[in-house]
Structure formats: C-alpha cells, structure tokens
Amino acid sequence: MLFSRCRSIFVKSTLISRRLGIASVENKVTDTDKRMFEMNNTGTLPVLLALAVILLTSILFVILKFCRNSKRVPAQTVPEDVVLLHHCGQGPHAPSLSPFILKLETFLRVTQTPYQIIRDYKMGPKGKVPWIEYSGTNMCDSQLCMEYLKIKLNLDLDDHLSVKEKAISTAFQRMVDEHTYWVMVHWRWDFDREKICFKQANWGSLALTVSAYLQRRAAWTQGVGRHNKEELLEIVRKDFSALSDFLGTKHFFFGDRPSCVDCSVFGQLSQFLWHLPGSEPNAMLKKEFLNLYEFCHRMKDHFWPDWNDNILLPTNS
Question: Which class in CATH covers the domain with range 163-310?
Fold first, then answer.
C-alpha cells in the first residue's frame, strides 16, 4: 500500500515537472531508490523490514529485561560475614551455564567462605554477572570479586606459590578466561545447532535467537568467531594440551592444594564437559586429555558434594 502510493506520487510528479519544464524528478531518483522499488515488487523489502523490526524488538526486550538495572543496583540487606552471590540460575548438568559463575562459586567453596546465592537475574554495577555484595560493597567481574575477597577476608589461595608459579598461574587464568572461553562461546552458539542444554534450562525460542545473534557477533568481534570448525579444534586442542602438560599427574595445578587457577580452569572446562555433550571438544577431553577430565571430576567431588542439588537434571555420573 505504502509503496503503491509512493509510485503514484512519483509518476504524477514526473509528469508535472515535464510540463513545467523542470528537471525530471526521475533524474533525481538514486540507484538505491530504484533498488528499493525493485525489492518491493519482488516482495523482498517487506520481508527484510519485518525481520529488522523483529530483531530490533528482540534486542530491545533483552536489554530492558536484563540491563535496565545495571546502573542502579538495588539495595540489599547483607548478612554479616556472608557474601551475597548474584547469578542467573542453574544449568541442566552443571551448577551454572556461565563458566565465570561456576569459577567464583567454586572459589567461595574452596576458601570455605559463607555465601548466599541470589538468583535475581539482575546485572551488577557494570552490567555483568556474576557480582557480589559484601560489607556494603558491590563488586562485579569474577576475577575482581576474587581479588577483592582475597584482600578483604585474607583468602589467599595462592599463598603457597612462588613468584614464578604465580606468574604461570596468572598466564593460565588469562588463557582460559579470555581465549578458551571464546572457543566455547563460538561452539555453543554457532556449531551447536540444537542448543539442547539451553532448552533443558527452559530458555525460550526468542531468548535463544537473540542470544545466539549477540554472542556470535561478540565472538566475531573478538576474533575467535572468524575461524572455521577445523581451525577452532586445533586452537582448543593447543589450549587443552598446555593445561594437560602442566597438570601432569598432580591433583591440582600446583600440587596437592588448590589455588585460584584451579577455580578458573574448572569453570571453563566444566562447560565443555557438561554443557557441550556430543561435541568434538567434549570428546577430546574424554579421550585425549584424560587428566583434565579427571581433574574436573576431582574438583566436583571435593568441592561440590551437593552437585546434584545444584543442577536442573540430577544424574548419578
């Protein structure tokens, strides 16, 4: 209807301009305008406009739902000496679909820090999850939360490490949190077409569609999302190999005592192991890097005896 009226106005204006001796309006029409009319005639333009409206509406919905409180964190009554951990719900086979939530909660368990989970799905001060409240302070980002609690509560898991070992620990944490993580993101949102784990966590089709678009775009911007499946397999194999070679036969990465790097590695590997079933990286952990597979189960058994109480689909494995 709209384009029919535009076409009628266009024809009439052209005839009038010719009678008045004015340069034809037709000459002012750009190639883009012509293409738009052609697209309308073929039915392509309305479809594209409809898709654009749906996409923008969906993105706006997600922003309003999850980010509207990012600048204004609601006040909480924090129990004395208890950390309030805000996160976004349980996963079907691991306590969270977020490696960073699992990393931080594992840290709290390893250090035996009293904490309370707040599943309010609200973003923290920086528009991120997880985030914590303690002693009147809101802290965001899993690593910064750990650093804050280490100082505030004297919870230094790395106090038994040498200077050299601390440097190695930092390097491994950066690798898994800022590199291996993106392989998982790209695999989860691009190659894993079924999204079984998210459906098991009761994600709706709208949330899945919008999240997939946003996460694929983020992975592309970061760079990992530009690689094909074969290239990503080699990339993640090298990450796994570095971790496996260093871990060797040790119980934890620096011996018989867990440290911060164990929490970080466990958080990331847990997603490949429990939330990417049937994937190539999952099979790689089980067949090529058995010590990493055993490490994950060791962390689970030691620090998550109530694992089944914290997942949506309890199992005996």
Answer: mainly alpha
